[in-house]
Amino acid sequence: xxxxxxxxxxxxxxxxxxxxxxxxxxxxxxxxxxxxxxxxxxxxxxxxxxxxxxxxxxxxxxxxxxxxxxxxxxxxxxxxxxxxxxxxxxxxxxxxxxxxxxxxxxxxxxxxxxxxxxxxxxxxxxxxxxxxxxxxxxxxxxxxxxxxxxxxxxxxxxxxxxxxxxxxxxxxxxxxxxxxxxxxxxxxxxxxxxxxxxxxxxxxxxxxxxxxxxxxxxxxxxxxxxxxxxxxxxxxxxxxxxxxxxxxxxxxxxxxxxxxxxxxxxxxxxxxxxxxxxxxxxxxxxxxxxxxxxxxxxxxxxxxxxxxxxxxx
Amino acid sequence: xxxxxxxxxxxxxxxxxxxxxxxxxxxxxxxxxxxxxxxxxxxxxxxxxxxxxxxxxxxxxxxxxxxxxxxxxxxxxxxxxxxxxxxxxxxxxxxxxxxxxxxxxxxxxxxxxxxxxxxxxxxxxxxxxxxxxxxxxxxxxxxxxxxxxxxxxxxxxxxxxxxxxxxxxxxxxxxxxxxxxxxxxxxxxxxxxxxxxxxxxxxxxxxxxxxxxxxxxxxxxxxxxxxxxxxxxxxxxxxxxxxxxxxxxxxxxxxxxxxxxxxxxxxxxxxxxxxxxxxxxxxxxxxxxxxxxxxxxxxxxxxxxxxxxxxxxxxxxx
Lengths: 313, 318
Hints:
The structure holds two protein chains of two kinds.
Chain A: H1 2-19, E1 25-30, H2 37-52, E2 56-61, H3 68-80, E3 85-88, H4 97-105, E4 110-113, E5 127-130, H5 133-147, E6 151-158, H6 164-177, E7 181-189, H7 194-207, E8 213-216, H8 222-231, E9 238-243, H9 246-254, E10 259-262, H10 265-280, E11 292-294, E12 298-300, H11 305-311
Parallel strand pairs in A: 1-2, 1-3, 3-4, 4-5, 5-11, 6-7, 6-8, 8-9, 9-10
Antiparallel strand pairs in A: 10-12
Helix pairs in contact in A: 2-10, 5-6, 7-8
Chain B: H1 3-26, H2 33-58, H3 66-82, H4 87-110, H5 116-134, E1 140-141, H6 145-152, E2 154-155, E3 158-159, H7 160-178, H8 180-190, H9 192-197, H10 202-228, E4 230-231, H11 237-249, H12 261-281, H13 285-309
Antiparallel strand pairs in B: 1-4, 2-3
């Protein structure tokens, strides 16, 4: 116990020393960076941008894909700690609304990245920086129609339930195939993890003897879906995904998947930090920052592998 | 019970409390009144669950249905509220659902002698599945202001969540100490012969204990949803183990017969303080898990040592 106390005390003093003399403490709160290259790329770009500007970066992860309330508690603790600004990737667009009100009352500016906040709460944050997820899904849907010649049965591996980014991509995909002969014969949440994606894909393949295409809401679930397809001995299934990760680009090159709708996580982080610092320094009024900033999308497929390698994260 | 063993047991909890205060004074903003109220508010969910869990563990049971009930009960209330039913009636429906699920646990344990571990785990999964099904897996939110106020409002500067935790602490303490029911619950966990000699039914007690735990889970789930202004179908996951850990840290004996509600609530507050302090210090999230795990082990070890040295009493005291 005594040793534990000493250790904890030591850590307290260390961190207190680290705070001294830095103008702003900017915290980034998100679900997790574990086994998730996309979130890691956002976190790294935010960290680099914050530290390059001479400010202090603080990473706060909830550590559990479904721990919505853990993230909310952590945000409350950041407010109690009186950080200067928060960058937030919300795990649930609705559940963070009460805590965003508390941040506003404490005059702590918040920047939203990647996943969006429930509509109607735009006054609670500076700006949202992210991919237009609906559009990315729609482009994937249209591409699927083209790949399958306008006819066929497709499966969808969704994100985690309640995740707005995942829902929007799937809604976009369905909009993209609307009016064609493509039919969605199965859709299940893969919870942004390979193990779950593998399990739900196995189940959907079991239930559907004929499957022509599969849409995964994220590259982070591709390995699981591919493993399930491989185990089931199915071939010729056309796969499209969203994210634009290095892993997916490799898979495109090997011919395992058709393509991935690229997002630019590092751009997201940099744009968020630049605008936040401008607002903190008073160089930009909160009104002059657009409420939505699109960090862009592009299709990576066999035709642009070289270009894809340059941007993939 | 002699004074020495009471003092020893008291030490099990005093050492960590003293450690927190010592640490607290070194952590910027920890001892701010607003932060402390905030910590109690964050601990209220685990704390209310721990009140019901204490009795379950005292009768040598375990309740693993919390995670599911914490989402299922408010999901029912939430759907009703969004359909225009007024909040009190909707909340009552959610609480009834929790009690019903709890009584079902009690039925399985007492009449069909299914181990509590199995029946509650299954009931939890069923509740979780229903919570996901009711709204197609998505979260629902934007509830009436009066409901959100319960989770985020304050009376005289004290958050309603804190007051609710206090109310449940009082209710649990009342049952434990001031009713014959309390005595019978401890008898069931500690010495069943006494129970039989008095001609009391174990089944009825099991019904009550599991039903009460279901009720606590429902209230705590509703409170969580009021705090978040959202019902998220998996929102309960994080609290299942915390509620059990709170009981263990508070000295509730997994072997049954021993433990008290106030100590379990203190256990919940300790977990809450720990997470808050680590957040305030900016300790990396990966390291937080290491810290919390280590501290639980230290506390459980200490209380084990104290129990071996102390005399065996049939009931724990504050």
